[in-house]
Amino acid sequence: MTISPDSPAQITTPAVSYRTIDLRGQRLSLAELRAAVPRARHQTMADAEQKVTDIITAVRSRGFAALSDYAKAFDGVEQAHPRVPAAALQEALETLDPAVRAALEESISRARKFADSQRPANVDVELGEGAVVSQNWVPVGRVGLYVPGGLAVYPSSVIMNVVPALAAGVASIALASPPQKDFGGLPHPTILAAAALLGIDEVYAIGGAQAIAAFAYGVPAEDPAAALDPVDVVTGPGNIFVATAKRLVKGVVGIDSEAGTTEIAILADGSARPSLVAADLISQAEHDPKAASVLITDSEELAAAVRVELDVQAALTKHSERVREALSGPQSGVVLVDDLDQGIAACDAYAAEHLEIMTADAPAVAARIRNAGAIFVGDYSPVSLGDYCAGSNHVLPTSGTAAFSSGLNVTTFLRAIQVVNYSKPALERVSGHILSLAGAEDLPAHGEAVTARFTGDA
Predict the structure, then answer these.
(1) Residues with Cβ < 8 Å from 83, sequence gap 6 or more?
(2) Is-catalytic flag, 353?
(3) Which of 25, 114, 315, 319 has the smallest number of CB atoms closer than 10 Å to its CB?
(4) pLDDT tens-digit readout, 49-102
(5) CA-to-CA distance for 318 and 293, rounded, in angstroms?
(6) Catalytic pick among 353, 356, 428, 441
(7) 287 is catalytic
């Protein structure tokens, strides 16, 4: 095995099975490109839909009793009520590692600066004398934020969900995260500490699809203080069951997206450093065995060097088995292209959650990308930066949905309300047009509602 100079050591381990998709010499349509790039063979939402439907029905009909049953069945904890006591939130904050607290505070500070700048301005447009149409941005009244558990702990997701909601001016915020057997049936203490840092005191130990159902429909109680009020918007990442639940309650509440397992694509040319490319592919593979790590390059030499680095670095990382499984899955691999133009086309077809640009003149290349949840430009903007401290939001569209949807941001929690304010003369100036259009659509009462204002005592 050949080891590059910046690799730490030669490791004798099975090679990562990182597949190759060779698109060179082919002129592919957008549909063909989308079919060619790596995709996960996940359990489909149709497979999960009946299970999730049953969970939603149970939560709606049996309330906290159903939530207690699911906590025992799925999380192995006994639960009288899922609300996290205020004392537990305060204790989690007081016992938080000072270094972790400092890191969370820095992440919050940067996220707030970016989120505060995102709020759109209200607009008043005067279309004529006495004719004003306005667009006012108004926050939703209440949101439910979901923070997953599973293979890792995600206090960063608390920040990514809460900060834009606060920046939008949301008055009521509830947060849910799965109960943990190791922590007395409460969510992980670092998640609780992050919530406390942000001033969130309504936190529930509820996981999975049942959390989404509870947020969407609410959970009544004889004591109003014990009830969980329904929300207007649900956000946050999760597994296939969380994503399915969000799809099923969409329309009852707003949702951010049906986010799935994390993914990274790296567009790189021969100037890229193989060790950095491999490190970044591994960083996302670490999340989950189903995570996607895709390299798109016109350099066969780079692809070969990255394979070597993947073998070395995967063997050395803590979650080596998980990483190897993710890198060897059908959702991961190297895509060989003829040139940068075909590489950009492949990136747009893939529409990655996270897209890194490691090419010559990376900013110019990044400017040509149209489909991505977030773009990370150059050697010193890795996805890990965006996960924690860039100031950007890491709740991003997956599975190609970045072609038509955006990552979590302040506007997720806002509504644009249009306000129409016409005077009598202003309405009269356009009344003839209204009558003509009402007649054309065979809706004469529309026109009569206008003429009524100019007849008799109107």
Answers:
(1) 202, 203, 204, 205, 226, 228
(2) yes
(3) 25
(4) 999 999 999 999 999 999 999 999 999 999 999 999 999 999 999 999 999 999
(5) 18
(6) 353
(7) no
